[in-house]
């Protein structure tokens, strides 16, 4: 990343993982070989994330843990308090990556939150800081007002929303693109190019889509509450797509959002 730290390219996400299953999912994901866990305060399962990290055989420093400050907690002091609350819920005294979950630009607070994140990094309570759902204008404003560029922007990205312009902005600014809802709720599993590549490689549609994210150079955090799904997704890292495959998958882009539009969501 642009701060000299490294991040595993593939991890697993915890959105909508029920609290009473989160420790199991975290434990199973780490046992399968993942080294990146994506959490957030709003997911309501940070206690389970922490419990999963305390299972026998899990070395804290071998795992990259992300969490996010929720929209209600934007602002300098509120973000510092939200960090303390996440640390308390997880039992972790340090996160590898702390993200502003949404810009909520209409509230006018994301730069204040960013200054708090910079302080948390200076204090060593987070190793890296980044954002989520930020547009090019929001990123430019952070840099203009603080001279600190986010290490990463976690954005909605899947075959039906390929985000070429924002990926180019990230590349120009030295920001890692991380894909959320990377499987696109399965909508592209039956698309002809996905099906034909999967058949040729003896892979599943999910694996083809995840291999595509990796080939684009994105970090990717699919979610599965099933151990078999976690394992299947991680194995996408061994698929080799060709230039022709990437050209065929590029045709699927239709600018279709499955989540809120960050330009207006608050
Ligand atoms: P995904 O695109 O990862 O899809 C998850 C769904 O796909 C689940 O229903 C899961 O079901 C299913 N699935 C997973 N693996 C497979 C497979 N191999 N074959 C078939 N189906 C499969 O969705 P998410 O929306 O959860 O996004 C991933 C992560 O991104 C989140 O968990 C969260 O960490 C992050 N995120 C961040 C956001 C942000 O604003 N920053 C917004 C949304 C998500 P099953 O459990 O049964 O396998």
What does this structure look like?
- This protein is an alpha/beta fold and 266 residues long.
- It has one domain: TIM Barrel (Alpha-Beta Barrel).
- The protein has ten helices and eight strands.
- The chain has helices at 19-32, 46-53, 76-90, 110-122, 136-146, 164-173, 192-201, 205-216, 227-234, 243-250, and strands at residues 12-13, 36-38, 64-69, 95-100, 126-132, 152-156, 176-180, 219-220.
- The protein has an eight-stranded parallel β-sheet.
- Strand 1, helix 1 (19-32) and strand 2 form a beta-alpha-beta unit.
- Helix 7 crosses helix 8.
- The chain is globular and about 55 Å long.
List the helices and strands and how they pair.
Elements: E1 12-13, H1 19-32, E2 36-38, H2 46-53, E3 64-69, H3 76-90, E4 95-100, H4 110-122, E5 126-132, H5 136-146, E6 152-156, H6 164-173, E7 176-180, H7 192-201, H8 205-216, E8 219-220, H9 227-234, H10 243-250
Parallel strand pairs: 1-2, 2-3, 3-4, 4-5, 5-6, 6-7, 7-8
Helix pairs in contact: 1-2, 1-9, 3-4, 4-5, 7-8
This protein binds NADPH dihydro-nicotinamide-adenine-dinucleotide phosphate.
Short description:
The protein has ten helices and eight strands.
* Number of strand segments: 8
Q: Estimate the global geometry from the Cα principal axes.
A: globular
CATH structural fold name:
TIM Barrel
Give me the strand/helix succession. Answer: EHEHEHEHEHEHEHHEHH
Mean pLDDT score: 98
Given helix and strand content, the structural type is alpha/beta
The second-level CATH architecture is Alpha-Beta Barrel
* Biggest β-sheet strands, sense, barrel: 8 strands, parallel
Report the end-to-end length measured between terminal Cα atoms: 28 Å
Biggest sheet strand line-up: 1-2-3-4-5-6-7-8
Work out the helicity level. 40-55%
Please work out how many helical segments DSSP would assign: 10
Low-confidence stretches: none
Radius of gyration: 18 Å
The total tally of domains equals 1
């Amino acid at each position: 990343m642009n701060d000299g730290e490294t991040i595993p390219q593939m991890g697993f996400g915890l959105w909508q993982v029920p609290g009473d299953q989160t420790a199991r999912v975290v434990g199973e994901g780490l046992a399968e070989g993942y080294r990146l866990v994506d959490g957030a305060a709003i997911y309501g399962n940070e206690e389970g994330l922490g419990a999963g990290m305390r299972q026998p055989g899990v070395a804290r420093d071998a795992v990259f843990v992300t969490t996010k400050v929720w929209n209600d907690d934007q602002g300098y002091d509120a973000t510092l308090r939200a960090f303390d609350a996440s640390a308390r819920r997880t039992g972790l005294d340090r996160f590898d990556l702390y993200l502003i979950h949404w810009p909520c630009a209409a509230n006018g607070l994301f730069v204040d939150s960013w200054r708090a994140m910079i302080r948390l990094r200076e204090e060593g309570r987070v190793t890296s800081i980044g954002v989520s759902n930020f547009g090019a204008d929001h990123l430019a404003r952070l840099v203009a007002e603080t001279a600190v560029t986010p290490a990463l922007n976690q954005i909605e990205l899947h075959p039906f929303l390929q985000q070429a312009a924002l990926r180019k902005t990230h590349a120009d600014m030295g920001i890692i693109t991380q894909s959320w809802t990377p499987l696109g709720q399965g909508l592209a599993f039956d698309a002809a190019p996905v099906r034909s590549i999967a058949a040729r490689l003896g892979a599943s549609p999910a694996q083809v889509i995840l291999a595509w994210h990796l080939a684009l150079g994105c970090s990717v955090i699919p979610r599965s509450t099933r151990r078999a799904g976690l394992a299947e997704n991680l194995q996408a890292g061994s698929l080799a797509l060709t230039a022709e495959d990437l050209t065929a998958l590029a045709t699927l882009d239709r600018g279709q959002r499955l989540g809120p539009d960050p330009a207006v969501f608050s």
